[in-house]
Design brief:
Number of helices: 19
Oligomer: single chain
CATH superfamily of the largest domain: Type I PLP-dependent aspartate aminotransferase-like (Major domain)
Bound molecules: pyridoxal-5'-phosphate
Helix content: 40-55%
CATH class of the largest domain: Alpha Beta
């Protein structure tokens, strides 16, 4: 009994002694380990405090009876800071989902020249609203407009925060206080609470619905026109498809009606394809130039969907209406920054050379890549993984354009599927938690990494991650 008691006192004294030996936060902060590291002072302090608190706990629980030296402790703190940093903030991920315009993953990736333009305008002053030739104030989006005229044949244009803002500005400036005619088949919700009927009331317009969910004819619009009608609106049903017996009025027919009554015809085309994307299988996707050629007075579309630039909304069309929008206070509230303009200008420049778009604009490259190339890519990734001792199979799959463009459209593609002993869920988690997260999708109990959306420059990283994960396990296949 006495022996046990003495032993306990011994342990307690030992714990007290050990606790006293833990270095002070300030002392550890002086460690060489932190000099030149990428963390701010407060981040290091936090990591050091937590590291020492962990050690204190371990000693109290009897899990350790030694105190690491200062440099070991500092290194643990540095690792802690690194782990904390990777938990938060926006970080680069590898999109292996096969969804080209993945809204959760930031939609379009930009061309090299757009990235260069962003860096240049962000890291210095730039001629955002300055006319260098004349030495006085210039037009903010003059460059964008010059290219848009060339590519789409529009008379004038505007750039705002996103397409949702574009629609808001168009309706508020042109149709507030009046009514706007829309087909019942086009009363869509685009996502994030952007619903056409709600937008209408927000803009001070009353919505005049015509036709039915599946069929609307030109007579439906015609008989709805009154002196109160301020616009005819057509909305691209970009995130759903009505199949079966359907009928809708095309922009050509609607424009004739608009001209007859002198009412502006507005088309929210959603994605905003600037090139002929029909040849990539996107048959139902409206093209800006065609919509304008077919008589739309105003067309609005996103900058970060099929166009392949940064988030913005573009309004293109007739000078008469756009000049009204330019003077509206909402335009000032919705206008975009120098970075967005720089990226958009650089991206639009590429579109003027049709042969360059497939090569230089990642979204278009991903759409245009052939089945053979995708297959070869998946096979070579798998071969390399096998060569290095890992396991993976090539699986035929289907990618999608995403980003609210072309609902239901699937593009044939190929995926690399890890074939270790992990379940699909486990493998998905392991790859998602890599330092550069690899985001795939699970189909029929297999994790698929669709090669269409994976950049070539990420192949080596993926090969390593999959090899590491699968090599120590039994092959499934
Ligand atoms: C995506 C989409 C919008 C919203 O565009 P954002 O640029 O995301 O604001 C609006 N209308 C249609 C038809 C769309 O497809």
């Amino acid at each position: 009994m006495i022996k046990v008691y003495e032993a306990r006192v011994d342990v307690l004294t030992n714990v007290e002694e050990l606790l006293k030996k833990i270095p002070q936060v300030d002392k550890l902060m002086q460690s060489e380990v932190f000099s030149g590291c990428e963390f701010y002072h407060n981040e290091i302090t936090e990591a050091v405090r937590e590291t020492l608190a962990d050690l204190r706990e371990k000693i109290k629980n009897g899990c350790t009876d030694t105190i690491p030296n200062d440099s070991e402790l500092a290194n643990s703190a540095l690792l802690k800071a690194k782990n904390k940093a990777s938990d938060k903030d926006i970080k680069r991920v590898i999109n292996a989902t096969g969804v080209i315009l993945h809204s959760n993953l930031g939609r379009a990736s930009l061309s090299e020249s757009a990235i260069k333009a962003i860096v240049e305008s962000a890291s210095s002053y730039c001629s955002l609203e300055y006319d260098i030739g004349r030495g006085n104030r210039g037009n903010r989006t003059g460059g964008v407009e010059k290219y848009l005229k060339d590519i789409t044949g529009c008379e004038a244009s505007l750039v705002v925060n996103n397409n949702a803002a574009a629609v808001l500005l168009i309706l508020t400036s042109l149709a507030s206080g009046g009514n706007v005619i829309v087909s019942r088949g086009e009363l869509v919700e685009i996502g994030g609470g952007f619903r056409v009927p709600d937008i209408m009331s927000q803009c001070g317009c009353s919505l005049h619905e015509v036709g039915t969910t599946n069929k609307t004819r030109i007579d439906d619009y015609e008989s709805a026109v009154t002196t109160e009608t301020k616009a005819l609106l057509k909305v691209h049903t970009s995130n759903f498809k009505v199949i079966g017996f359907t009928e809708s009025v095309d922009i050509k027919e609607l424009s004739k009606l608009g001209k007859k009554h002198n009412i502006p015809v507005i088309e929210d085309i959603g994605s905003g394809a600037l090139t002929d994307v029909k040849r990539y299988g996107l048959h139902d996707e409206p093209i800006v130039k065609e919509s304008l050629k077919n008589g739309a007075d105003i067309v609005s579309f996103s900058g970060d969907k099929l166009l392949g630039s940064l988030q913005c909304g573009i309004i293109a069309g007739s000078e008469k209406y756009i000049s009204v929008m330019k003077k509206h206070p909402l335009y000032r509230a919705f206008r975009v920054d120098k970075i967005t303009i720089a990226a958009l200008e650089a991206t639009l420049r590429i579109y003027r050379d049709t042969s360059a778009t497939e090569r230089d604009i990642p979204v278009i490259s991903m759409l245009s890549v052939s089945d053979d190339v995708l297959k070869a890519r998946a096979e070579s990734l798998c071969d390399e993984i096998l060569k290095r001792g890992g396991y993976a199979d090539v699986i035929k799959t289907k990618s999608t354009a995403g980003g609210g463009s072309v609902p239901g459209l699937e593009l044939p593609s190929y995926a690399v599927s890890p074939a270790g002993s992990q379940s699909a869920d486990e493998a998905e988690k392991i790859l998602r938690l890599q330092s550069i997260p690899i985001i795939g999708r699970i189909e029929n109990d297999r994790l698929l990494l669709d090669v269409r959306t994976i950049f070539n420059s990420d192949h080596e990283y993926m090969i390593n991650a999959i090899t590491e994960m699968t090599k120590l396990s039994e092959s499934k296949s």
